[in-house]
User: Fold DUF1552 domain-containing protein from Alienimonas chondri.
Amino acid sequence: MAFHLDRLDRRRFLRGSGAALALPLLGSAPPVVAADAGGPDAPKRLACIYFPDGVPMPLREDPAFEDWSWFPHGAGTEFRFTKCTDVFEPLRNDLTVLSGFSHPEARKVHGHRNADQFLTAARIRREGAYENSISLDQLYAEHVGDATRFSSLVMSTDGGTGTPRNAQTISFNRAGRAIPAERSPKRLFDMLFVKSDADAARRLAISESALDDLLEDAHDLRRRLSVEDRGRLDEYLDSVREAERRVQKAKRWVDAPPPAAGRPPVDQDLSPDSPREYVRAMLEMIYLAFKTDSTRVATYQIGRENGAGVSDRLARAVGFNLAHQLTHDTKRPGGWKNLGIYCRFLNEEFARFATRLKETPEPSGAGSMLDNSLLLFGSASSAFHLSRNYPLVLAGGRNLGFKHGRYLNYSGADSIRGAWDGGPEPYSRAITNDDQPLTRVFVTMLRQLGVDTDRFAGATGDFPELLS
Assistant:
């Protein structure tokens, strides 16, 4: 269907000759009247970010335990981050670290196959018929409905859907079908922020800024805004231009071919900055989409399980070759530290994203955008290929009733740790300490987001310990 600029809502877009740019929520009118952050119609946002392959879990007697264990030391409000997670310290009062949670139906699943279940909690076995169910994000997207231009953003580093039990997306619709994920920051940027005619599309394709043609309309709009909103608009336009630059820097990562048999697994001319810029650009797309209220729901699968795909090369960001191999090499000298350094890189980028939301005031309301956003960051593996005791961080949501600054540890003293020694893998060991059902956390998240429910994936019960 043809796109007509004259049909655009002028409260939501800047317009130029053949291009339009989505505007952020602003407190003054016109162009946009934002909901009161304390009111029932305030934007409530959900982002779920997944990383594969588990985390460092050295034995307690191992010298690496003190510095490189992913989970903090201590419990409750009296806990200490390690070198692996100390990037979370500035956000300490805005997040909760969870230990001892997993999906009951996934606890005996090999770690290469558990990403499919991370947001669904469905019963998926190693063999036989494959049936999944609706994911947490899509259930909330149904609740949000058509309040935003896009019901949700579904993103992953590898893109597409993958195959059953080897997901490259963590989002599934009500029929349990995988929703294809977008991997190109450029396509996301154009989809979210630029509506254009054919000529504008051509200019954008050759990397001309989307803003250059829109500054006259921005100047006219600025005269009708409050002083506070003028600052917000200027900051937003700067953010969009910076996002454009970052998208271009990340383009080489997207265009790089996957490893071919018999060839080096990584292009030697691919800068170590490329994967870091790529992850940062993807998270920036979520930030800007939330800021413009283009969507209130997003997922990003940083990497697929089993070490396949372009995402395995993200370890280049910190000087290593393949990310999944780091989990196999923890038995080697310095192995725990190396895996910890890689996990620290992922933690750092998540913390940067959360901080962006925290530093952005909620339009025409109290607190920050982080206070009205719930961020779930984690994996469906902990120790080597172990689908139990998920490493999880829940951040934000202060205006939604969440209480933070704690490490809630339900894993018990017999939590499986240590490097894989080549014998039976940890996932096949007998379960001696039942985790808390992660569905209880999901129910609590949904209820605080405004969904009237007492169950998820057929399981009932919530987790009020997360609330103030």
